[in-house]
Amino acid sequence: MRSEKVSHPLLLTPCFSLLTSHFSLLLEVCLSQLTLGIVKPDAIETGKAGLILAHLQREGFVLRAARLVRLTPSQAGEFYAVHRGRPFYPDLVQFMTSGPCLPMALERDGAVAHLRTVIGATDPQEAAPGTIRKLYAESKGRNAIHASDTPENAAREVGFFFAEGELAGLWGKA
Ligand code: RTP
Ligand code: MG
Questions:
Q1: Which among 132, 115, 122, 103 has a CA at the least distance from the CA of 33?
Q2: Residue 2 falls within a domain, yes or no?
């Protein structure tokens, strides 16, 4: 006969709340509520950050966290590691390190898919009218904004720039 050790439910409560707070960010991303956008160096340089943020807020995104950062080559290379070996990778790393950029944790229902729709195609010439890249991007290489392409990548990318405690600290009770 199997011997089972049964814990009283009350003993599990602190453990459960610790787990839920630790994984709340992951859960939000898994539920597709949270994604990462980055205003890229070209758009920062040409003063488009405010317009882009206003566009995102009109689309229902809530700004959960943001910080102006200057990526190092190693950080930019790691962030775009999926493209390592592609012909455009060195130019991409050079561009992403050419000036400050603005990573943003963005919240909305269906955040990952909706942000991809709102930014438009990679090449602004192919982007739909009214999309951020159509409105503000210069070229396929200098295309104004990044957006996570899957919930799994959103989880990795939000965590790349923002510690979970940072998001909780920004929005938790005083
Ligand atoms: P992102 O990751 O920045 O949101 O862009 P994306 O998904 O629309 O495009 P992706 O295929 O992930 O490529 C990442 C970035 O690399 C540059 N790229 N250049 N010259 C080219 O053929 C080429 N292809 C990609 C773009 O800046 C693109 O945003
Ligand atoms: Mg991409």
A1: 115
A2: no
- CA-to-CA distance for 35 and 148, rounded, in angstroms? 6
Nearest CA residue ID for atom 4, ligand 1: 146
DSSP string, 4-49: -PPPPHHHHHHHHHHHHHHHHHHHHHHTT-EEEEEE-HHHHHTT-H
User: Can you give the residue range of the structural domain that contains 112?
Assistant: 35-171
Q: What is the pTM of this model?
A: 0.86
| Residue at token pair 């930014």 | 119
Return the exposure string of 21-52: e unless at least 16 CB atoms fall within 10 Å of the residue's CB, then b: eeeebeebbeebbbbbbbbbbbbbeeebbebb
**What's the CATH code of the domain at 110?**
3.30.70.141
Task: Using alpha carbons, select from 3, 85, 90, 104 the residue that is nearest to residue 44.
Answer: 104
Q: What are the pocket residues of ligand 1 if the criterion is a CB atom closer than 6 Å to any ligand atom?
A: 83, 88, 92, 122, 140-141, 143, 146-147, 149
CA 35 – ligand 2 centroid, Å = 13
DSSP 3-state of 104? strand
pLDDT digits (tens, 9 = 90+) for 32-81: 699 999 999 999 999 999 999 999 999 999 999 999 999 999 999 999 99
- Identify whether 146 is a catalytic site residue: yes
